[in-house]
Design brief:
By secondary structure, the protein is α/β, with parallel strands linked by helices. The protein has one domain (4-219): Rossmann fold, CATH 3.40.50. It has eight helices and seven strands. A seven-stranded parallel sheet has the order 3-2-1-4-5-6-7, with helices on both faces. Strand 1 (4-8), helix 1 (13-24) and strand 2 form a beta-alpha-beta unit. 38% of the residues are buried. GO terms for molecular function: oxidoreductase activity. One of its GO terms (cellular component) is membrane. InterPro entries: NAD(P)-bd_dom_sf (IPR036291), Sc_DH/Rdtase_CS (IPR020904), SDR_fam (IPR002347). Belongs to the short-chain dehydrogenases/reductases (SDR) family. Pfam families: adh_short.
């Protein structure tokens, strides 16, 4: 039986690097991201199904869940899509609350809703969920309060889900700093250029899927 994965935020960065690795091993892939053109190019290269859209949109999540059902269910759901918040980074004293509400929809509510929509298939195939988090969820960095709050919430949801769903592996995954557009937005292109490439993180994720350790917080080292 061919394994099937759904990866959000798959047009660049860690999502695209993981998709390339899985495709090379024959996985069926459902890829989504907001950037339609970049996503289409990635999917064409990998022979994957591309469904462009915003994971915060319930109708788009329904399309993703339907695609997963049409392929017989999922072995792996990777909630990688994420928003950063206002740039330049803002202290909490000046953080716009309406922006935080939107960030919570993208970084917390959308992953949970997508899990809920795909969970029956994941249960049936004893699949796995990777919720991509950050060290900002557990460390206090000036200016990162809004983003950090969303990742801390995602980690708590992941932990409870792991207890409630013993037949599904749930990992909340801290990849560390990576050379991505998001990091460049946060700290500047020059500093971001010194970070490791997303491809260096993929072997850790592949080991999770292959070895299936107990659900929990996993940090890339």
């Amino acid at each position: 039986m061919t394994n099937t994965a759904l990866i959000t935020g798959a047009s660049r960065g860690l999502g695209l690097a993981l998709a390339r690795s899985l495709a090379a091993d024959g996985w069926k892939l459902i890829l989504t991201a907001r950037g339609r053109d970049a996503l289409a190019r990635a999917a064409d290269d990998l022979g994957a199904l591309a469904l462009a859209g915003d994971v915060a949109d319930p109708a788009h999540r329904d399309r993703l869940a339907r695609a997963a059902r049409d392929l017989g269910g999922l072995d792996l759901l990777v909630n990688n899509a994420s928003g950063l918040g206002p740039v330049p980074m803002r202290p909490l004293a000046d953080y716009p609350v309406d922006t935080l509400e939107e960030l919570l929809r993208v970084n917390v509510l959308a992953p949970l809703a997508l899990i809920q929509a795909t969970l029956p298939g994941l249960r049936e195939r004893r699949g796995a969920i990777v919720n991509v988090s950050s060290d900002a969820a557990v460390e206090a960095y000036e200016g990162w309060g809004g983003y950090a709050a969303t990742k801390a919430a995602l980690e708590r949801l992941s932990h409870v889900l792991a207890v409630e769903e013993p037949d599904v592996a749930v990992w909340w995954f801290d990849p560390g700093e990576m050379r991505t557009a998001m990091l460049a937005d946060a700290v500047g292109a020059e500093e971001a250029a010194t970070a490791p490439a997303p491809e260096t993180v993929v072997p850790t994720l592949r080991r999770l899927v292959a070895e299936r350790p107990a659900s929990g917080r996993i940090r890339h080292r």
